[in-house]
From TrEMBL:
PROSITE patterns listed in its UniProt record: ADAM_MEPRO (PS50215), DISINTEGRIN_2 (PS50214), EGF_2 (PS01186), EGF_3 (PS50026)
Designated name of the protein: Disintegrin and metalloproteinase domain-containing protein 21
Record's keyword annotation contains Nucleotidyltransferase: no
UniProt keyword terms in alphabetical order: Disulfide bond, EGF-like domain, Hydrolase, Membrane, Metal-binding, Metalloprotease, Protease, Signal, Transmembrane, Transmembrane helix, Zinc
Gene transcribed to yield this protein: LOC101342210
Biased amino acid composition, Low complexity: 716-796
Classification via Pfam families: ADAM_CR, Disintegrin, Pep_M12B_propep, Reprolysin
Disulphide bonds in the chain: 358-363, 464-484, 653-662
Organism: Trichechus manatus latirostris (Florida manatee)
Residues of the signal peptide: 1-31
Transmembrane segments: 685-706
Subcellular compartments: Membrane
SMART domains: ACR, DISIN
């Protein structure tokens, strides 16, 4: 290839590269063109594999990105509880009619993480729409990343975000502090708390904040009416805000989005009037159909130089848990910072004062600069006060609990006077059993339930809830209802495995609990561990929490506090926010876990109710009580020893006996467990099965006997041959004794059978040959001698195993 051709190909490569970059810009909306003021770098993320420095941690992914003159190793894992499973998107038709949709939104493609080498770094990325989109903050410098469209090599653009790029007339932030202070009686924490607190000394807890977003018409037009792109950016903003609030243990869960696609429903002009009018509108229109702790109005207009406004401490308070945030050509990082700032006001955080500090030059709640992503010690103190006042509304996980959504047809919840509810119109068109008016389709008997299939009731005897453990009981369909009968289980106090007792559908004992925490080799520790640790009254050993105080266990209740284990081989991988402790004293080792105020994850270390704590005693509510307290009028005698009592104190009979007392013949179950199936008599299949087995056995015997007889040889045969003469001996079935004495060259054959055997001997003299054959026990023996310069050959075979030995000797002539 000539130099000219090489330069030509290089030019073509460079032109194609920048063409892809230009195409990536052409695919952006107007909202993305004016956000960045610096040139991007082109990077290709490389996925890393291996076991070095945490890369083998379960659920974590690692990528290498080269930008800013160096390589950055990014570690990240999927963020849970970001988007609600049933998130609604509301829009409006040309005539102003409200439309609700629940589109499929991938919820396992949003990531949080950090950059290796920078403990204060922040990573918030998503891969839901192809490639990486989001932000990274490394050494107090923010970057945004997005994929290049139509790139065959997974190229991305990385923008460096400088704080002085964003142009706002004023960097002041506002909140409605005067009015809310009077109406909500919000009190500041004392200056003493602020001075003594540090942004690094707070023990965080887990909180859940349900969040809703309303997009005004100006921002919708700014996105050129592209609702898909608008939703994508909203989800990325929420992901970044959620990553910022990880420091407080707050999970921000987006419950719904409303887009004013036709017009604004409030007048957007004066900043305070906009906030007031929006809050009034959302109380009447949004709150009944979309639950939330906080709702924000996103708009593309600055209000008197303020990027946002919200009520101070208004979270969880109807009419005040709202705010407005201006987009106005901001980058993803800056807009997310303003949203996080206004959210902080709703959570009770005031503006930072000069005495407030964090690890950056400015903190999230400062009022003069673009917010950073760090909370100050003052913000931690304000937040702690808010959690004490409003902890109930943020304590439960909304993904697992029941969130009131307002009674209406189309919310996916079957309510009064509704036969079914298939949700939005889109889902109802695919439901053959339910109509959009929440009525059953013609001919349909049901539309949901464990005993409903193809719009019909399942027949009686169909298992709808199987038994999951020895303390559980199965249930069957009745044939007249779409619902499975009530979930029943064995009565509390019934003995179960390892000297345990059934209690609330579980078989509990401390050995089993230790194995669940520390592995199959672990077991309950010496009783001295329980006495030493559970009487301390701290987060590692206690008998419950009373307010913010740990309750010390009485000596009689030490086995009902926190479980203590021994024989621990390895430290388990537990959920986040969990601590494992180890104590060794007086020759005993004690392992356990902690639990403290504010934690919302299940406490795996508490001794479960129903656990045995002594002869005839069990643990109930951290107290060791007598089993006689579990009063019941049902016993094994009540069920005539043919069944077991359930939690409704009724007999659940074995198969073959009928409820209620298992006295008469029947098919088992209880009066509330549904109709068990009629078991067929298995004995009718027993005789054909036995006959088949005997036939196969007989066939195999005949086959092996036939193969054995085929392999046996009917008669042995020996045929020695020489160039001069041949001697052949063939045994006969009868006993023979033959002797021949030849003269000079003739043959002598002698046969002497002994005990059913044969002996054949042949001798040749004067250069002749001598052959002797003697079979023994089914074997053969052949001996040949040559004399006068000849050869001596001896062959011996015993039990059909031949053995040959040849020797030569020189004779004197």
């Amino acid at each position: 290839m000539t130099m000219t051709e090489a330069l030509f190909h290089m030019t073509i490569f460079v032109l194609l590269h920048w063409l892809r970059v230009l195409l990536s810009f052409s695919g952006q909306t107007q909202a993305e063109h004016s956000q960045y003021h610096s040139s991007p770098e082109v990077v290709i993320p490389l996925k890393l594999t291996g076991t070095s420095r945490g890369r083998n941690a379960p659920g974590w992914l690692s990528y290498s990105l080269y930008f800013g003159g160096q390589s950055h190793i990014v570690h990240m894992k999927v963020k849970k509880f970001l988007l609600s499973r049933h998130m609604s998107v509301f829009t409006y038709t040309d005539h102003g009619a409200l439309l609700e949709d629940q589109p499929f939104i991938q919820n396992d493609c949003y990531y949080h993480g950090y950059v290796e080498g920078d403990l204060e770094s922040l990573v918030a990325l998503s891969t839901c729409f192809g490639g990486f989109r989001g932000m990274l903050q490394i050494n107090d410098i923010a970057y945004e990343i997005k994929p290049i469209m139509f790139s065959a090599t997974s190229e991305h653009l990385v923008y460096k975000i400088d704080n002085d790029e964003t142009q706002f007339p004023s960097m002041r932030h506002g909140f409605m502090g005067e009015k809310i202070a009077q109406q909500l009686d919000f009190q500041e924490v004392t200056n003493l708390t602020l001075k003594q607190s540090s942004s690094e000394d707070w023990w965080t807890h887990v909180w859940f904040v349900t969040y809703a977003v309303v997009v005004d018409h100006t921002l919708y037009l700014h996105y050129e009416r592209n609702t898909s792109k608008l939703q994508e950016d909203i989800y990325n903003v929420v992901n970044v805000v959620d990553s910022i609030y990880d420091a407080l243990g707050v999970n921000l869960l987006l419950f719904g989005v409303e887009i004013w696609t036709e017009k604004n429903f409030i007048v957007v002009n004066d900043v305070k009037n906009t906030l007031r009018d929006f809050c009034q509108w959302k109380v009447k229109n949004l709150s009944p159909r979309l639950p939330h702790n906080v709702v924000h109005l996103y708009m593309n207009k600055a209000l008197r130089g303020l990027p946002g406004l919200s009520f101070l401490g208004g979270i969880c308070k109807m009419g005040y848990n709202c705010g407005v945030v201006s987009f106005l050509n901001l980058t993803l990082k800056d807009f997310a910072s303003y949203v996080a700032h206004e959210l902080g006001h709703s959570m009770g955080m005031n503006h930072d004062k000069d005495t407030c500090t964090c690890r950056q030059s400015s903190c999230l709640m400062n009022s003069r600069k673009i917010p950073s992503i760090r909370f100050s010690n003052c913000s931690y103190a304000y937040w702690w006060k808010t959690t004490i006042d409003n902890w109930k509304c943020m304590r439960d996980n909304p993904q697992t609990g029941n969130i009131p959504t307002g009674k209406r047809c189309g919310n996916g919840v079957v309510e009064e006077e509704e036969e079914c509810d298939c949700g939005s119109f889109k889902y109802c068109t695919k439901d053959p059993c339910c109509l959009a008016n929440c009525m059953l389709s013609p001919g349909a008997l049901c539309a949901f339930g464990l005993c409903c299939k193809h719009c019909k009731f399942l027949p009686p005897g169909e298992l709808c809830r199987q038994q999951v453990n020895e303390c559980d009981l199965p249930e069957w369909c009745t044939g007249i209802s779409h619902q499975c009968p009530q979930d029943l289980y064995v009565q509390d106090g019934i003995p179960c495995l390892e000297e345990g007792y059934c209690y609330e559908n579980r078989c509990n004992n401390r050995n089993k609990q230790c194995r669940e925490i520390f592995g199959k080799e672990a077991k309950s520790a010496n009783q001295r561990c329980y006495k030493e640790i559970n009487t301390q009254g701290d987060r590692f050993g206690h008998c419950g929490i009373n307010g913010s105080m740990y309750v010390k266990c009485a000596i009689s209740d030490i086995l009902c506090g926190r479980v203590q284990c021994e024989n621990v081989i390895e430290i388990p991988v537990l959920r986040e926010h969990s601590t494992v402790h180890f104590i060794h004293f007086n020759g005993v080792s004690c392992w356990g876990t902690d639990y403290h105020f504010g934690m919302t994850i299940p406490d795996i270390g508490e001794v479960k109710d129903g656990t045995k704590c002594g002869p005839g005693n069990i643990c109930i509510h951290r107290k060791c009580v007598q089993m006689s307290l579990l009063k019941s009028n049902c016993s094994a005698q009540t069920c005539n020893m043919r069944g077991v009592c359930n939690n409704k104190h009724q007999c659940h009979c074995k198969y073959g006996w009928a409820p209620p007392n298992c006295l008469h013949k029947g098919i088992g179950g209880s009066i509330d467990s549904g109709t068990p199936p009629q078991k067929s008599d298995k004995r009718i299949y027993l005789f054909p099965l036995l006959f088949l087995l005997l036939f196969l056995l007989l066939f195999c015997c005949i086959f092996f006997c036939w193969r054995k007889s085929k392999k046996e040889k009917p008669e042995p045969q020996t045929q020695p041959q020489q160039t001069e003469q041949m001697a052949q001996t063939q045994p006969q079935q009868s006993v023979q004794d033959v002797q021949t004495q030849p003269q000079q060259g003739e043959q002598t054959v002698q046969t002497q059978p002994q005990q059913g055997e044969q002996r054949v001997e042949t001798q040749f003299q004067q250069g002749g040959q001598g052959v002797q054959t003697q079979p023994q026990q089914g074997g053969q023996r052949v001996q040949t001698q040559f004399q006068r310069g000849g050869q001596r050959v001896q062959t011996q075979s015993v039990k059909s195993k031949p053995s040959l030995r040849i020797s030569s000797s020189k004779l004197n002539r």
